[in-house]
Description:
It is a single chain. It is built from 10 helices and 23 strands. It folds into 2 domains: 344 residues, no CATH class; 92 residues, Roll (SH3 type barrels), CATH 2.30.30.140. Helix 7 packs across helix 8. It is globular and about 95 Å long. By secondary structure, the protein is of the alpha+beta class. The N and C termini lie far apart (74 Å). Strands 3, 4, 7, 9, 10, 13, 15 and 16 form an 8-stranded antiparallel β-sheet that branches. The longest helix has 11 residues. A hairpin with a 5-residue loop joins strand 20 and strand 21.
Amino acid sequence: MYAKPVAAAGLGEARAVADAILYEGYLLYPYRRSSGKNKVRWQFGVLLPQAWAQAHGLSDAGVAGSAESWWQQTECLLEGPRDALVDVRIRFLQVQRRSPEELLPDGDHRPADTIELGSRLELGFDEAVPQEFQVRATVAEVLGGARRVVLRAPGGEESEPLTDEQGRRAGRVLRRRWPVTAVVTLSATACRTPFPLHRLQVRVENTGEATPPEAARDEALRSSLIASHALVAVHGGSFVSLLDPPQWAQEAAHECANVHTFPVLAGEPGRRDLVLSSPILLYDHPRIAPESPGDLHDATEIDEILSLRTRTLTEEEKREARATDPRAAAILNRVDTMPPEVMARLHGAVRSPDPASEAPWWDPAAHASTSPDTDSVVVDGVALARGSRVRLRPRPYGTDPQDRFLDGRTALVEAVLLDVDGAYHLAVTLEDDPAAELNQWYGRYRYFAPDEVRPL
């Protein structure tokens, strides 16, 4: 059975995040072909042909999507009746080689790695074509037995004429793709839980056989699934978070085996009918920052810094970057024309963990249940609060080295604080500090965790 390519549309915010995953690391700053960063590409979700991967010892079965393999596996928990419909979208990039050829006097063409066209360059480079396939089945169908579907992204070749600045033919650009073949297997098993729950498995394997085992990695990539990931929707059911499962489903969540990918709830917060299984680890309901004006292909960077760095490229460097890839040209054009108010938004934003709250999280009124002056925390069976005396015992490791000089000193607790992660901290002043009263007046304290003090 074959799955057909589908148009990339719908699914809202989840698709925006999935698109960022698709092109994560596609091309890195300074966006030039000559950059060392861009000579070894395709770092996440790479599914190589099976024979080639096995010949090169790629047998890792961990969750990290940066480890190359010939297969990946998603397991998630699904609540729903037998007639609930599971809709799986398998998405990846297919490598496409762009090769410029110059026009000869006799009308023939000759391969050329670089062609000068006045102020413009034409370079050879590996681009990529996004592919998306849809596989659908009911819960009853996958409970009754594994459903195996073949995915085929065909090869092809296109030619585009090149002209110089006077509009005269100067050559052509050939774009060539190699076929990519994969198999996706859907299956499900019933979980042993107090409430009906199914473990849904989506396994993707690269079954291409055209790449010889002795081939170089660049050749193997031509028949590979790049940045492979899955969007899984259920109609008439819902998914259970593997990051924060309810107590009754925790054991079932721990039993899910995810290899080279990990599923999280996707879409708007509160939505539970959609999962994004990504080779890059995410949190539930991930989203693109609203301040970001466009993809920079490097989610580990800060948009503001990366945009400022891009602006500092010389004109010659920008010329090469524009010739390297259309996506690089789009980044340069966007950054060069970015209005000051858009750049200012990239400087930073503060968001409340509770969007429904009218008061920001740093406002004490937002959490009236906390009171540093009256709250307490129990240490060695003793409730410590403002006014309690303690002896300081800083941890030998993982603490401020300056605190080690205070080991054994006595201190007075000035406040019991609770941070946004739910951890307690004790604000203290040293009893033998001549400036203790002055520090109390200014509110200048030293801070220790409860396990770094002993009650007196």
